[in-house]
Every structure is written in structure tokens, then in C-alpha cells.
User: Fold these one by one.
Assistant:
Number 1:
Amino acid sequence: MMTRTTHRLLATLLAGAFATAATASIAQTTTEPTHAEKKAAKKQADADKDANVAQAKADKKKTESQSEANEAAADAKLKSAKKAD
């Protein structure tokens, strides 16, 4: 028969062994990405690319609008200067 102290010691040793095995298992899985993680990373990269393209288009549109506004302002200024003569 084992005493209570022996049972506690054995339980502690087993718990430590399981904790070590679990840590080792987690360490192994975190070093290699799973298929799902690779798929998610690819989707994220595609989404980032789409967002960058959309931002570039928006920036281009804004620049074109500003250019048109500047041209209209220059035309108005020219027209005003001609009237002053």
C-alpha cells in the first residue's frame, strides 16, 4: 500500500510530466503553420493587396479631382484678368 505522501508525490510527478509533454507539443505546432493558417495568411495577403489597390485608385481619383479644381480656378482667374483689361 502506498501512503498519502507517496500518492501526492506520484500525482505531482505525473502532472509535471503531462505539463512538459503539453508544452513540447505546443512548441512543435507553433513552429510549423497548419494548412488553415497558411490559407488564412494567403487570404489576408489577398485582402491587403485589394485594399492597397483600392487606396491607390482613391488617391488617383483625388489627385485628378484636385487637378481639375486647380485648372478651373486658373481658368476663372484668367477670365477675371481678361475682364479687368
Number 2:
Amino acid sequence: MSAAPSHDRGITVGKSWPRPTTPAPLVPRWEGEFRDHQDWVNFAHKRLTVASDSNGAQLKAICVDTLGRRCANGRDMKRAADEGTFPVRYFFDCEAAADVNADLLDALKDANEPLAMCQPRTDHGARCQSAATLKAWAVIEKAKGSAS
């Protein structure tokens, strides 16, 4: 017995199994992005054909626009261009979300401690706050880099 297909964000999904999926704390391991449609036209073949599985078979990348919609073909990329939802990011596999979040929270806590300990209206306090702010931004940029 097969249920009728449902439409979700432009994708037709056949529902043949009635049991819901078990939630998993996974996040994409972002490999890169296409800035615009022309970037995709020029570089998609080179960027999206570089990964292989343990058997040597090519892995297909998953491309997602800024609204979270899959971009699986030229028509989807054209839609992203027409609707202004570039950059389109891509990934080949996922990683555990808890590991990424725990590292980020620890690093931000370490960067934030000087802000709480130093007096802001002194030269020393200003230097501590500046250093802590720069460290926090570096952690955020590192997290963005690991996510892309």
C-alpha cells in the first residue's frame, strides 16, 4: 500500500512508509558555495564531482539555496537566480551537530570570561575587552568556515 506523493518545498516525495523518521542531530558538512548562477555554470562540474564513497563510487553533492530548498538541476539553479536565493551551498555528507556546538560554546565561553573580569573604563579593561571581542569573532569565523 503506497500513499499519494506529498509536495514539500518543490520536491515530490513519495510516502510509502508510514512511520516517521527518528530525529538525528546531524548538520551538513558544507564544502563550498556558488555565488551566483554564472559561478554554478562555470564551476559546478569541477566542484561537485570530487567526492567518492568507500567503494570508489562518485558521491552526489546536495545543493541548497538560502531558503533551504534543494537545487538538483539547472531549473532549480535558474529558480534560485530568479528569486535571488544565491549563494547556493553544497555538501556531500553530515556530521554530528553536538560536537560542533560544544566546541563553539566552549570557545565563546573562554573568549567571554575577560569581558566579565575586567573593568571596562580602564586601559587594561579596554585591552581585555578588545582581545576578547577579537577572539570571539575568530571563533565565529572558524565555525562559519567549518560549516562551509
Number 3:
Amino acid sequence: MSAMKYIGFLLALVFVLMHENNAENCTACWTTYNDTAKDCTAIKTYITCLYDASGCEKRQMMMENIDKKRKSLSSCDLTKTCECQVTFMKADVAADTKKCAARKAELGCLMMSMGVACDATKKHMDIVSASETAAKAVDKCALSDTCTCQVTRAKADMAKMCTALQTEISCVASKKNKGCGGHKGPDDIGDHARKQMDKLSSCTKTDTCKCEIVYSKADLGTKAKECTAAKAAKKCLEDLKTNSTAGCDGKTARANVIKIFAQPRINKYCVAGADSVSGLGFAVGLCVLLLQMVMWI
């Protein structure tokens, strides 16, 4: 581990320890909340207190109850980051295996979210760093290499987010494992990063990168649609007829983007019957029926 990474790990660990040592217990959180008007502001304060609380066996039940109360109000929304925190606190973490799964799920949620934490003070990157440290502290709770790519991006300062997204796209391109939440693969994570780049006006998108974004922003609800989008991206890249601009990763030339981005997706999604297992099942069933008829004759 390099000196900078070691220092970063220690700072995150200190953040977690301070987070716990300065926290109230759940009973104190409830007492404070119970003495209020129990409006949205009080509920959010209570949620923050529960998240920070230490030595609390009933936190899961208490968080479930207060979140249900919050949802019953007409307008009491949480930031996406806070929603990830709340979901973690409602999870069963009685055993290390469950705690590991819950921490990974929290990280997976954080990878797709933005906004400040439940306390409305801590930044998204701070919560990601603390969650990563907490996950690694659980016995036998290793993060996948793909998840590590995501976490590195998510811990970046917004002022450096364009470069962080480029790095994430490059990082996941060579990976095979699922990401932090265990659901999204490297391709989906790369596409999400491209869409985030497209949303940031501060990011300079090359013409080659824009062709990649054509695919990432398309409706990919079925394999047929993924095939259409992949072909559109390839045509977009071929029409450029120059290798002078790099792709969304900031380094891959147009010709290679066709080879490693567009063409593999065409090969995967543009095969006959790729979107219909039912068609195959019907054909097999028909063959079986015909065979039976022949046997009867």
C-alpha cells in the first residue's frame, strides 16, 4: 500500500471511529425525537441520530418504524445518499456475512446516488469512504475489483469528477466481476459513467466519446434495442473516419473503441433469437409433439 493510500485509509478509519465515539445511543435518539413535534425536520434529525448511534441492538426496528412514519408524510424526501444509509440501517446485520452483504449493498446504492448525507452536512464522497472502510473491517468481506473501480470514482471530488469518470470507464473495461451491489456488471457500470459524463457540462466530450454515449443513453430494455443501439454507435464511430480523438476513457482511439466497445455488443445482442427464449421453447415443444404423433401412427 502506497503512503498516500495508507494515509487515506487511516483518515477514513478515524472518521468511522469519531462517528461512533461521538454518537448517542438509540434510546437517547428516541428520547430527543419524542420530545419534538415529530415533523419532517425532527424525523430527519432522528434518522441521522440512529445512523450515528452506537451500542444499539434495536436500531434496525427503530429505523424501519421511523422511515415508515417519514413515508406517510406528504412531503418528506431524503437525498439519494441518505436513502442508501437508511436502507443499510434497516438491514439485518446480526452476522458478519449479513453485515458484509448489507455494506456491499450500501456501496452499490451509493455508486448510483448523489447528494449530501442524512445529516445534510457530510458529502457523498465522505459517506462512500466511511462505508468502504466499514465494509473492509468486516471479517472476510472483500470488495470485487470492479467495485474498487467504482469506489475510487465515487470518492473523487466533484471538481475532478470528469477525470474520475474517465478512469472508472478505463478501469472496468478489463474487469469481469459484478460491481459493489453485486447486480451490475462492468458494461453497465461503464455505461452509467458515460451517462454521468454527458450530464456534466464541465466535461469535454470528444466526438468518439459522444458515439459511445449514443449507446449508453439509448433505451436498452431488450436485446433487440441493445442491438439497434450498438449498431448506431458503431455507425457513428465509423462515420468519424479519424482516430485523432480518444474515447470516453480519455485514451482509446476511435478504431479501438469500435473493436472493444461497439463490436462486442453487436456480437452479443445481434444474434438470431437473442431476445426470445420463448421462441426456442415453442420450437422444441412443437418438435416433441410431432415426434409423438409419428409414434402414434
Number 4:
Amino acid sequence: MTFIPIICKILIFGVKFLHQKSVREYGAPDKIFCVEGGGSGRWSTEGGAMGVIAYRDLLKIREGVKIFFIHNDGVVTSPWNRPFLAASKDTNCSWFVGEGVVLRVGNNLWSCRLHSKSTLVLHTLSGVYMFKDAAGKPDCMAVGVRIPSQVRKVQHQLLANILNENTLLEDERPTGITKAISQGALSAATRMNQFVEEKSMTTNKAFIRKNSIRALKGVSRRLNRVAERTGSTMTELPAEYNKLQEAANMLHFSRTAKTVQYI
């Protein structure tokens, strides 16, 4: 029994020695960044009092993610490898909706702390998420993140839900031929509705047998859904997203023209 206090003193001395050694080699950390769910911890010197910040993984896509850096001069760069994507929640903010989530791509490629009232995100028609936060890269106007199509639908939906709750997420508005199709579908649906309303009270039984009112209403609903999916009924994109839309156009052109610079 007398050996127990001696063993405790030896353990305490050992912990103090290792701590002093790490401080001499790496400096005293202000905060500790811990990622649960398979992530590796790292030191973070963000300032503030000594403390521990624990992060809980909300989503992790192991590999296959593409990230694009859209530079101010129009050049688009992307790493050759396809890194992971992780969304983690600060456990100190567990009770706060829209705060405390960090989105990371790769170990040191890009990270962004999401804020529901200030983080602008544009979801393009091609499925790329455009972020205005370029992670301290002054020569970049935006960052694009694309999730591979082979990822399970539930993970796609989970990422969309996380961004909906923690950012100002907007969908890209269609243009060109897509917009024309949308407007045509909406116009046809409007005429169909008018036709149904005018003929629904008709006494011509032959007409009713030949042209089911229920079928006409079904066609009208389908046309309306086409119009909604292609954007005719959407409001204009807010002005603060203009830079993101410009970056999305640059990315679309670079991918189509195959001018993306892989580094």
C-alpha cells in the first residue's frame, strides 16, 4: 500500500517533464484542436486563454472530393489528388444552431468556419458548392468544392442540410436555353389551367370522356414542376452573390475548355 503514493508521484513527474519538453520544442499552445471520428488532432494557436476545443464529426467523405481555387486573374487551379471532406461541430456550441461548424477539405488544403448569417455559398447547376471564403488566399476570389457522384445520396443530402443550417446557401439561377425551356413550361401550364377552368363546367359529356379533366390537371402539375426545377419561378439571385456567380462562370468555362491547372 505504501508504494501507491510513490507511483503516483512518479507519474505526475513524468507528465510534467513531457509537457515542459513539448513547450520547449513547440511553444505553449493557446488551444487544442481535437477531431473525433478518425481525424487526427493538431495544435492551433488562435489566441485566447488556455483551453481545449473538442470537435465532433458530423460528416466525413473519405476521398474523391474535388476542390477548385478560382483566382482573381481567371486562372483555375486544383490539386491532382482527390482529398477527403469533413464537417465537424464544436462541442461547446452543441446547443447553437448555425454556429460552430468547420468544413475542411484535405489536411491543409482548405477550411472554413461556417456562420449562418455571413457565410455565402452558391450551389451551381453542375453540383459544385462555391464558397466566398478562400481561407486566407488573397489572390483567390472563391473556392469550389465538388462531391463525387458515387458518394451515397444520404451523404449528399446530409451535406446539403449542414450547409442549409449553417450558411447563406443559394442555388444558381439558370440562363440561356434552360431558362427558355422553363418559361415555355410555365406558359404552357398557365394555358392548361385556364383551359381546365373554362371546360370543367361544360355539359358536353363526349368532351369529358375524351379529355379527362383529371388528366389535364396532372399535365399542368407536371409542367409546373418542370418550370420550378429549371428556375423560371425563382427570384433573381441577390446582388451579394454576383462575385460567386462570376467565379462559377469562370470555373464552368475552365472545366469545359479543359484549362484547369492541376498542381
